[in-house]
Specification:
By secondary structure, the chain is mainly α. The protein has helices at about 1-15, 15-80, 80-85, 85-105, 105-125, 130-140. It is built from six helices and no strands.
């Protein structure tokens, strides 16, 4: 046992200062890498938590939009407009939307105006239009 210890001490004793500096440098570099990896892991966990929160917000927003669309659809199908607008008002709304389709070149605005015109047509007891082009050609 003493021989083993003596051989270890003699081997350790022959280590140069440069070897010790190299070993300490490697240990410090390894420790630095571990600290960096730890911080990266904490950052990833934080990003993951924020992503989960954003998913919840998006899901809530989608549910609110669906509820809003359902209410609009229900209102149209129940015919609540009959009590709220006279024929004169419906014709004025229809005329305004037709003018909007003629003056706008925005497809989304044209589609919205198209839907409003068809609701007015239905409430007035008139046949509905099939497309925006039909409205444009019908009135010009």
């Amino acid at each position: 046992m003493e021989k083993i210890l003596l051989s270890f001490v003699s081997t350790f004793g022959s280590a140069t200062t440069q070897d010790i500096i190299d070993s300490v440098s490697i240990i410090l570099i390894g420790l630095s890498l571990l600290i960096i990896l730890y911080r990266i892991q904490k950052w990833i966990i934080k990003v993951n938590e924020n992503t989960s929160y954003l998913k919840e917000v998006l899901q809530t927003y989608k549910q609110l939009q669906e509820e809003k669309e359902t209410k609009i659809t229900a209102r149209r199908t129940e015919g609540k407009f009959d009590d709220e607008f006279s024929d004169k008002e419906l014709k004025y709304i229809k005329k305004s939307m037709i003018e909007k389709i003629g003056s706008e070149s925005n497809k989304e605005a044209d589609d919205m105006a198209f839907d409003i015109i068809n609701v007015c047509q239905e409430l007035l007891g008139e046949p509905q239009f099939e497309s925006v082009d039909e409205i444009v050609s019908f009135n010009f």
